[in-house]
């Protein structure tokens, strides 16, 4: 999902910046009204940054990263995950990859837009079953690869369709492995949901589950 610096012209970067600010601003009131979500946003940002830093490799015209979208979404909730993506990318840029800050909005939108689509069309309700998690993951990573294709299509240099297909195919392994990881974390979290720290850190839908 990583878009290399220099691919997009300044005007297109300004469009991405404005779009990212608009998306975050639209969701900010709901986040600010619930202080409990602030801790979860911080946890999402750190979790995402650790995964991003733990594994990344070149894949066609972009990079393959561990994202951990569904663990964050199902355990921490929609808003913490949405803002956690933006905060995590900012943290990643400040600490490890300062050259990527120029594409902060581009990379954030590549993760946030698919999350919004999944949340508003499929939702996370009853996502305790592995089959449901697999469908959520498949839809999300399909969205991520399409977003990368969108940015590549806007690039100043033409990118071959086969190169984008190579990138898309690389995420098949992530989409295959992450549901098992997510399922394990969700089941583990369910065993501690009655504890006070879990109620503070985890999404209310999980801690209130029967």
Walk me through what this model shows.
The structure is a single chain. The protein has one domain: Arp2/3 complex 21 kDa subunit ARPC3 (Orthogonal Bundle). A two-stranded antiparallel ribbon has the order 1-2. A hairpin with a 2-residue loop joins strand 1 and strand 2 (62-65). The chain is built from nine helices and two strands, in the order ααββααααααα. The protein has 210 residues and is mainly alpha-helical. The model has no long low-confidence stretch (mean pLDDT 86). The radius of gyration is 17 Å and the shape is globular. Keywords: Cell membrane, Membrane, Transmembrane, Transmembrane helix, Transport. Its main location: membrane. It is found in: Cell membrane.
Name the features:
210 residues, mainly alpha, Arp2/3 complex 21 kDa subunit ARPC3, two-stranded antiparallel sheet, 9 helices
């Amino acid at each position: 999902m990583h878009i290399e610096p220099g691919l997009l012209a300044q005007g297109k970067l300004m469009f991405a910046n404005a779009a990212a600010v608009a998306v975050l601003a639209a969701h900010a009131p709901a986040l600010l009204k619930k202080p409990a979500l602030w801790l979860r946003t911080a946890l999402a940002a750190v979790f995402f940054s650790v995964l991003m830093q733990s594994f990344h490799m070149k894949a066609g015209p972009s990079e393959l990263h561990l994202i951990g979208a569904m663990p964050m979404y199902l355990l921490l909730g929609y808003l913490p995950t949405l803002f956690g993506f933006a905060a995590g990318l900012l943290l990643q840029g400040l600490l490890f990859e300062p050259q990527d800050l120029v594409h902060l909005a581009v990379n954030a939108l590549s993760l946030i837009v698919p999350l919004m689509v999944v949340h508003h069309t499929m939702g996370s309700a009853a996502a305790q079953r592995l089959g449901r998690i697999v469908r959520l993951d498949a839809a999300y990573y399909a969205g991520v690869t399409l977003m990368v294709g969108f940015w590549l299509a806007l690039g100043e240099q033409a990118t071959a369709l086969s190169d984008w297909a190579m990138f898309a195919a690389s995420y098949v392994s992530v989409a295959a492995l992450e549901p098992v990881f997510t399922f394990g974390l969700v089941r583990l979290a369910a065993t501690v949901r009655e504890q006070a720290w879990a109620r503070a850190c985890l999404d209310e839908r999980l801690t209130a589950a029967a």
